[in-house]
């Protein structure tokens, strides 16, 4: 049994780890789960694969585990961009994003606490994941989406898994606020957003897997939206440091899109708090967030790891998405490609040396957002089947352009 405390980021209130607790019982603020490093923990004793391989470091009591074999994603070494670069391809999770790592823990928690209904606000991936895990658990899911702002693949997943879809006029931030208010007023619905710190206990396993694959890299680059994941990954490394398995944590580098960069702006300007953005906008819909609920946690992870933040434009994101596909054969959605755009910028700015071992977290699969993939340029030629040979020979010899 993993022990420790839950500590409020707003008022400092501390209480022993309790699975019923999601927000601060005193002020409603966000809580950090700080585990006591288990004395008998040993890597060689771990069994199985995926998130639950690390159950010795995941607090909570689980009467049943709702799993679809999430985690255990490949860490792919770059073949053509930089030999010191690695891609943690979270797009290969069961629903196509890292959200599944958090969802297996949070939905197992909901079921263990006898909840019959779950809810999540989402830019799309949390919804798809919540819908799938709720379906597997045999419970009802409600998802709250910003109408017209969810990538087609993600929306279609939520439909297929049978979630009840509530669409709001307004941004993700409006949807998120509605879910937080609902949870505070009506405790019969279990919330699956990342203000729920139990979700991050699943997501921290990204760090454990990276460490088991290549040890501790110099840098980990993470696209930042609601800002839970960058903290979760830092938390994972930090726990390994406290246990004594590693002797340093990587620099955590957050990347935000120009039209939705409150945290990156604050870090770059050296401010302690972000200025929130009312109408966030970017092609990277997964990080199209103006009021990141976990901003305190993200800024802590960046500062304590001596990391930084980078802002990238939409055109840099789409260019990086294409480069990743065409140089490495890896299809990631725009938010994930922001990590590569940020890597290129970090090298240009001298923030990262190209000889430093660096891991990019590719948070979601390209199939999530077919419309963004189809924006890439390529030749499409309407052919008479009888002329295919001539056209191909012409292409190979460069006659057609
Ligand atoms: C959720 C998500 C993010 C952002 O993660 P946060 O924890 O909200 O910062 C980035 N990319 C993809 C594909 C996502 O689904
Ligand atoms: Zn508090």
TrEMBL record:
Residues in Tryptophan synthase beta chain-like PALP domain copies: 67-364
Family matches, as InterPro entries: Ser/Thr_Dehydratase, Ser/Thr_deHydtase_PyrdxlP-BS, Thr_synthase-like, Thr_Synthase_bac/arc, TrpB-like_PALP, TrpB-like_PALP_sf
PROSITE patterns per record: DEHYDRATASE_SER_THR (PS00165)
Record key words, sorted: Amino-acid biosynthesis, Lyase, Pyridoxal phosphate, Threonine biosynthesis
Pathway participation: Amino-acid biosynthesis; L-threonine biosynthesis; L-threonine from L-aspartate: step 5/5
Enzymatic reactions: O-phospho-L-homoserine + H2O = L-threonine + phosphate
TM segment ranges: none
Protein name, entry field: Threonine synthase
Binding-site list for pyridoxal 5'-phosphate: 125, 225-229, 363
Modified residues (N6-(pyridoxal phosphate)lysine): 99
Enzyme class: lyase
Cofactor(s) the record lists: pyridoxal 5'-phosphate
GO molecular function terms listed in the Swiss-Prot or TrEMBL record: L-serine ammonia-lyase activity; pyridoxal phosphate binding; threonine deaminase activity; threonine synthase activity
One Gene Ontology term from the biological process aspect of the record: isoleucine biosynthetic process
């Amino acid at each position: 049994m993993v022990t420790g405390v839950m500590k409020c980021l707003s008022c400092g209130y501390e209480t022993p780890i309790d699975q019923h607790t999601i927000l601060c019982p005193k002020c409603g603020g966000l809580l950090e789960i700080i585990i006591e490093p288990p004395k008998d923990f040993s890597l060689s004793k771990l069994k199985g694969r995926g998130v639950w391989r690390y159950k010795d470091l995941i607090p909570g009591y689980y009467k049943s585990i709702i799993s679809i074999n999430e985690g255990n994603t490949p860490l792919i070494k770059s073949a053509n961009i930089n030999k010191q670069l690695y891609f943690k391809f979270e797009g290969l999770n069961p629903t196509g994003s890292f959200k599944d790592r958090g969802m297996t823990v949070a939905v197992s928690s909901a079921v263990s606490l006898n909840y019959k209904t779950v809810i999540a606000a989402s830019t799309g991936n949390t919804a798809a994941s919540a819908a799938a895990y709720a379906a597997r658990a045999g419970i009802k899911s409600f998802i709250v989406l910003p109408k017209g702002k969810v990538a087609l693949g993600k929306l279609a997943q939520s439909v297929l898994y049978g979630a009840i879809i509530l669409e709001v006029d307004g941004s993700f931030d409006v949807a998120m606020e509605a879910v937080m208010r609902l949870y505070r007023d009506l405790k019969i619905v279990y919330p699956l957003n990342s203000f729920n710190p139990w979700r991050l206990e699943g997501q921290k396993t990204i760090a454990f897997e990276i460490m088991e694959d290549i040890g501790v890299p110099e840098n980990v680059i993470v696209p930042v939206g609601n800002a839970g994941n960058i903290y979760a990954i830092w938390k994972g490394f930090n726990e390994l440091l406290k246990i004594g398995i590693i002797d340093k944590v990587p620099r955590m580098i957050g990347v935000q899109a120009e039209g939705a960069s409150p945290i990156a702006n604050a870090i770059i300007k050296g401010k302690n708090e972000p200025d929130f953005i009312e109408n966030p906008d970017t092609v990277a819909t997964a990080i199209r967030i103006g009021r990141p609920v976990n901003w305190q946690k993200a800024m802590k992870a960046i500062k304590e790891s001596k990391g930084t933040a980078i802002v990238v434009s939409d055109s840099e994101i789409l260019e990086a998405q294409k480069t990743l596909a065409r140089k490495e054969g890896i299809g990631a959605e725009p938010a994930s490609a922001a990590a590569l755009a940020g890597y290129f910028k970090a090298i240009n700015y001298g923030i990262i040396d190209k000889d430093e071992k660096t891991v990019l977290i590719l948070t979601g699969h390209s199939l999530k957002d077919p419309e963004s993939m189809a924006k890439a340029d390529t030749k499409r030629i309407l052919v008479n089947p009888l002329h295919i040979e001539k056209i191909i020979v012409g292409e190979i010899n460069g006659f057609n352009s």
